[in-house]
Amino acid sequence: MSAREMGLVAAGMVTGFVLVMGVSSGALFATEAAWVDDGKAIVPVEAGAIADDRELPFTSGDANTIVGDDPDEWTWTKSDSSDDPPVPNAFCAAFEVSTTSETPVPFRVRVNLAVQPFNFPAPFATGDYTSNVWVDPFSSWEETPDFVNTGLVDIVPFENATISASSPLTMRVCANVPDPPWSPPGDTTYTVLAPVLDVSGGNPCVTLTVVGHTPYFLGFTANFDYHALLDDALTDGVITQAQYDSWLPRVYWWGSTASGVTGADHLVTFTGYNALTRFVNLFSNVVLTACTYN
After folding, report:
1. Cα–Cα distance between 117 and 270 in angstroms, integer?
2. Domain identity same for 209 and 171
3. Are 127 and 197 within one domain?
């Protein structure tokens, strides 16, 4: 099953509950950034095409160059030497750079540091890319005139690097990046599946699974209606009235992957302990589990 199909199945499970027991214009810089490979990728899945209005991080920088415009078809990894999926603060993206020219021509790829998955804040500085981004094949950088405000910078080849209609190239861009932005749930962002209640240990424990729908990492909100969850458990005979009365007033939640607090209207929000449990993408579903004891 493709990731797109998995996302559609997951979206259909949302309803109900599951009960179990600064620089000058035109400056050129070589890509000399050191690549830092840290973190751990989890739950790799097959990428699937999702049509949406995402602003692209890589586009054509001149009339000769063609860059694929579907990030779901790019190859995403954790580093240039690993086939593991990317992590929230580090990624590599490989994509084809081509042209319609039959004769060899130089290429130019425009990078937007302001958008996902780069997420660098304005005002932009030369160090954003020289210290954090690495490009293969080895190339130079040329900042656009309003780079400091837009974050737009071009990857340009050295003199002997060209492409033609019969000889495209695969470019790989790797980067260490800031924390991803928060996003609301949706068909092109993420889905929070129905909560799973487990009472086999004598206390209510809940698992929430967050399914990502984009190759870019996103911050998410994972919550559930605790009152409704216990109501369903009582109706289905999973818990007793005494357990219901004892458990409903509880406020604080702890677990191996998340903690939480019961807020207004018995809405419980889980928060992960680290980047791998606070951000989600197409390749790394997040599973949060916590229990309430008092």
Report:
1. 24
2. no
3. no
